[in-house]
Amino acid sequence: MTVLPVQDFEAFLSRKPAALSKGPIAIILVEDDVEVQRTVRHHLEIGFRHILLLSRMSIDLPDDMLPRVTQLSYETLRPDAHVAGVNAIIKAVPPGTWLYYGFNAEFLFYPFSESRTVGEMLAFHTEERRSAMLTYVIDLYAPDLTRTPNAVNPENAMFDRTGYYALGRKGPDGHDRQRQLDFHGGLRWRYEEFLPADRRRIDRIALFRAAPDLKVTADHRFSVEEYNTYACPWHHNLTAAIASFRVAKALATNPGSRDVIRDMTWRNSHRFDWRGQQLMDLGLMEPGQWF
Predict the structure, then answer these.
(1) What is the pLDDT of residues 49-74, one digit of tens each?
(2) Is residue 20 part of a domain?
(3) Is-cis flag, bond preceding 255, omega within 30?
(4) CA gap 288, 238 in Å, rounded
(5) How many whole angstroms separate alpha carbon 140 and alpha carbon 160?
(6) What is the pTM of this model?
(7) CA 239, 245, 249: angle at the middle one, nearest 5?
(8) Which domain holds residue 167?
């Protein structure tokens, strides 16, 4: 294990190093020390060319990961920390570069991810003239909080196999936006009383192409409305999923909820087998026209 050198965030981006010259690039905001190595390895294995770790702490990684990972000093615990970080990286990479952003203890899955790389998937999505992809954040949680107080147990992870729904997304004029929906479900739905109203959606535009003046917003949408759509006008498109312990971890450790929630499992809890096919079989992501 080697301690990853920490570089200054703004200085690194201003140099425009070779690591930023071609995607797909994954941006991982490290909020704590939970499952950081597993998160990095997962995204390297599915084919990201380079990973940018945004973190306020030093991180140890195996030597085989180091050539494709850069750690940048960044305060990830400030409110809406992803906004400034992701927007700065959008400006630093060439227009058209595919980017992904997520957090530690989150794992990207997409249709056929067992046999195809994220680059192959995004190449098809690009051919369909799409510049962004809708992802659903699927909450993972431990089956036994007495044994796993922080609710993070990758070897025995559970998730909700049902209980997901969508509502029309209103525009400024009060009418539904075309091809945009607000998606709900998982722990954010079952324990909504512990989450602010603006943190209860499970949709995130986590995969997108950099473009001039493009900006991500605090609610995980983008300044370009077409980026926020789930499909193009003429047919269904690919969608992906992020299997995430982030909400479970927060509910199990935050003072307002940790003494109330004794068990996150319910009748619709199901064992997560760490395959994208499982999520696709349950309709939690779809292949569109990609076979």
Answers:
(1) 999 999 998 899 999 999 999 999 99
(2) yes
(3) no
(4) 5
(5) 8
(6) 0.96
(7) 150
(8) 106-202+222-291
